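Thread: "does anyone have the structure for this chain?"

Original post by V.I.:
We have the sequence but no experimental structure in hand. Need at least a predicted one for the grant figures.
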Amino acid sequence: MKKSFKSGFVTIIGRPNVGKSTLMNHLIGQKIAITSNKAQTTRNRIQTVYTCDEGQIVFLDTPGINKAKNKLGDYMLSAAERTLNEVDLILWLVEPTTFIGGGEQYIIEKLQNVKTPVFLVINKTDLAGEEEILKAIVAYKDKVNFAEVIPVSALKGTNTEDLLSSILSYLPEGPMYYDEDTVTDQPERQIVAELIREKALRLLSQEIPHGIAVMIERMKTRKKGDIVDIDAVIVCERDSHKGIIIGKQGAMIKEIGTQARTEIENLLDTKVNLKMWVKVKKDWRDSDLLLKNYGFDKRDL
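Reply from O.Q.:
Generated one for you, tokens below.
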């Protein structure tokens, strides 16, 4: 008798920087979501797809849940919170610590109102001893009625196979929503823009990255098919930021471009000619129109 095929939607939530994007990239075996140690790295709900013989898991990597400070923050928060009742399973990623602060309490309140099963996934076990991990489990286990508690290391891949098996066991029988070779619903242009933004996040100083967006103005394959020409614009909020992004004699923007081009070439599997400019759009994060222009849906604002 043929085994039943499981399928469903799983959202990954957690405070900024707990490793949500790293975990999702590891589970599907390909880099889709950008990662950095700065808040607001993920701005949209990114859908990625894991398919195996037993089933198909569609992951939603949401922006980190924390209190909003501007319209972009409102957008990100609503994108994260809206997924909680729309999915088959919630993975709440936390770090192996007994400290439960205001951000965690905020998530606990949200989770107490959902009917969706919740896994507590304790990430970054590579940075903690067994005793610390056990203490973290004790600190969290009674806060929400968790279906499972699973320690993992997204970075090292520790226990991620067990996590996938447990996820599949909670999903209903269902169809294959995407072709088996699909890994994301994100358009290539969007992934390219995000890869550029990731490099900017990593290379620039702490205060600037929150205020940048990346727009792909042109992405065209040459007639011979051997090179893709990409024109990208980094949008920032202040003239002083523009100078920092460009850098002394253009050194910073050149380094951002060099690092981004390598990953874009891996993604597209072809040579890339990447040209970048910097434009100033003051307070774009509080403008409905500009947020829409940069790919954020007005209905979510």
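V.I.: this helps a lot. Confidence is low (pLDDT under 50) at residues 33-44.
O.Q.: and Strands lie at 6-13, 46-51, 55-61, 89-94, 118-122, 148-151, 213-221, 227-236, 271-280.
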